[in-house]
């Protein structure tokens, strides 16, 4: 993998025009390159192997237990949007060792399906996105940090029941414990605890903090009814999803905490018999819940927040073959 980048700034006193495109550079003057952000390039290759091994065993005809181990990785790379040439990287690959065990079952003449699993993931050099603003005036940069080690563990449960023909009720639930085991913001000495003086170049220790976008609890409940009508099959469903509070960034400024949110979604569809098409209508966030979906604190400049999608509705026409 290789990357070449340059932060060029041109001046054209007569102004520019969108109709010229790259022609706007004709006659423009290249300004002096910013100190510390001159053109830069990097090249590096990584070779890794991943794999999975698993076992399953049927206790009885409709009950199976299973377990597996998997080793995976994500390639390293370079940062393209930087304001300091040294930030180009490279950043290292991340690795994860995953363990999972569970049970899958179909009961009561296949009217009840119960699945449950436990999992453990051990991460090494987890890639974490960092947004920073440097320079005067400040300019945005996005870089990848390698957190030393992280652990995610939890439980997932799902159930699906058919109390009477045509009606299916589904439920899911999950618990997640996800923390950084080792995570320094840089290579310098560890910064002393606040409010002590923070020496230039010291590294903040984020060990023990929860991972970004990792709610401790989550769940959903869905009811779907299907019936024959007008020489076709109609279906209506209602769903409630709930997600626990989480963090929008690893720095965990108080403004980066994303509150828990519950949302209601509706869906309806109809498909003619022996056809290859269907029509449908849907509503997302039925109650028009206002909530913060993302947040980032960039001291001392600003705190950025992104609202979740408001109530949305639409229609679908699907063709399949």
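Q: What amino acid sequence fits the structure above?
A:
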């Amino acid at each position: 993998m290789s990357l070449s980048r340059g932060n060029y700034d041109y001046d054209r006193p007569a102004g520019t025009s969108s109709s010229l495109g790259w022609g706007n550079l004709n006659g423009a003057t290249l300004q002096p390159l910013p100190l510390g952000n001159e053109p830069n390039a990097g090249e590096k290759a990584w070779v890794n192997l991943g794999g999975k091994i698993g076992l399953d065993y049927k206790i009885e005809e409709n009950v199976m237990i299973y377990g597996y181990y998997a080793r995976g990785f994500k390639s390293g790379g370079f940062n393209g949007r930087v304001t300091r040439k040294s930030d180009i990287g490279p950043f290292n690959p991340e690795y994860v060792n995953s363990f999972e065990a569970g049970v899958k079952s179909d009961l009561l003449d296949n009217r009840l399906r119960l699945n449950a699993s436990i999992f453990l993931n051990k991460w090494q050099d987890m890639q974490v996105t960092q947004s920073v603003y440097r320079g005067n005036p400040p300019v945005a940069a996005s870089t990848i940090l390698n957190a030393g080690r992280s652990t995610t563990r939890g439980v997932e449960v799902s159930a699906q029941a058919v109390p009477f023909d045509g009606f299916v009720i589904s439920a899911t639930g999950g618990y997640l414990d996800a923390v950084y085991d080792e995570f320094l913001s840089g290579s310098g000495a560890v910064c002393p605890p606040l409010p002590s003086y923070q020496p230039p170049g010291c590294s903040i220790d984020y060990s023990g903090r929860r991972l970004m976008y990792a709610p401790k609890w989550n769940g959903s409940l869905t009811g779907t009814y299907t019936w024959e009508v007008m020489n076709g099959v109609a279906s209506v469903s209602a769903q409630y999803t709930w997600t626990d509070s989480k963090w929008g960034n690893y720095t965990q400024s108080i403004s980066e905490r994303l509150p828990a949110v519950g949302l209601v979604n509706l869906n309806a569809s109809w498909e003619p018999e022996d056809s290859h098409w269907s029509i449908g209508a849907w509503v997302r966030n039925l109650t028009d819940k206002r909530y913060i979906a993302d947040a980032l604190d960039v001291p001392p400049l600003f705190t950025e927040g992104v609202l979740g999608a408001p109530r949305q509705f639409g229609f679908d026409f699907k063709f399949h073959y």
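Q: And what stands out in the fold?
A: The mean pLDDT is 90.
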